[in-house]
Amino acid sequence: MTGKTELSGGPSLPQERRVVTAVPGPKSQELMARKQASVANGIGTVLPVFARRAGGGVLEDVDGNSFIDFGSGIAVTSVGNSAEAVVRRATEQLNDFTHTCAMVVPYEPYVQVCEELAKVTPGDHEKKSALFNSGAEAVENAVKIARAHTGRQAVVVFDHGYHGRTNLTMALTSKNMPYKHSFGPFAPEVYRVPVAYPYRWLTGPENCAEEAAAQAIDQITKQIGPDNVAAIIIEPVLGEGGFIVPAKGFLPRIQQFAQDNGIVFVADEIQSGFCRTGQWFACEDEGLVPDLITTAKGIAGGMPLAAVTGRADIMDSAHSGGLGGTYGGNPVACAAALGSIETMRELDLPAKARRIEEVMKPRLEKLAEKSDIIGDVRGRGAMLAIELVKPGGKEPDPEATAALAKACHQQGLLVLTTGTYGNVVRFLPPLVIGEDLLNEGLDVLEEAVSGL
Ligand code: PLZ
Question: Whole-prediction pTM value?
């Protein structure tokens, strides 16, 4: 390794956990004071250190601490930070041109990304895509397209669902704090129905799929009227709601209902997509082929890009000029996406995600057996979580969850929390993480759990 590559981030960064100062260290504390003076309070911080370099399975801070990364910037850097093909392609594009506005003068990388999306998303029907900047923007546009296609207005979403922070997507998002509180009024014609959350289904997990689907369908039928529904939007694994894997059978029943009633079925795969769950898309697990699929995060290795992909006739329902935005499908982000998708194929990242599950899940399950505060272990591939409860029952324990995350951070392991009740620790390592780091991260977690 040359001195030059050692100084850069990306895969060349030393793959080790290293805690050399208190967390946060002095340089991070200094920067934090500047952040507090210049950045709006609304922008929170999970781990109060400042990043300097990141790559492979680690993130290094300005004080020289190196954290094992179990967060991937919330499921974004699945190919690792500054992945070689992402950097190479984005750099080439930067040198050619940075922006023309795809609606003013188009360019090939935009078309290539849409061609790739047609290939990698489920179903072999004719597909088209439109590109945007953020996940929320993709979801908003999926709603616009579904409304234009059906001539209907209502949108159905689910308990524990998360779809973004813009006005329409706040309405679609279920959790008040911190996403919605004091930010209303919200967009109308949004309806929320139950989801099959096995761990917390009142009658137990056995009949959860059937009962939840029956309740959801009953509510749609009685309270909205299927003929008024443009779209049903669901995350095949609910991310911010707590990594809830809907009980098997629930998603197909909801999709069937949508199909029977001319409702556009939208899978929001912004967090679960692009190899994260061990398949290219989480909805493949039950063989679902959504009408529309929203993607972002993992698509471009850290560059801002999002997409709506779906049946060509539905996608073409919006009139020419009806969709777009100044930056949507920015050429550098598109080039990065092509590098990201190339990496996913070359390294077979769905298989890597499945391997991460093989390593992590048994250890998490063993930990849950020993610990009376871990109520549930769930997830698929490299989208795994533990739900923390008060001993002896199922009462959520957000305090223990925050304390556990903090203890991990202190020891050089970056984990994120999630969940409607704030009581879930989630694990989203980059899919390229080394197995030694994965195991070392789990060692840190186990120690932190026993120290609670
Ligand atoms: N849909 C399923 O997971 C983003 C949000 C973090 P944007 N999830 C992380 C936070 O606190 O803001 C997300 C998602 C699903 C939509 C979105 C929204 O994607 O790119 O953050 O707009």
Answer: 0.97
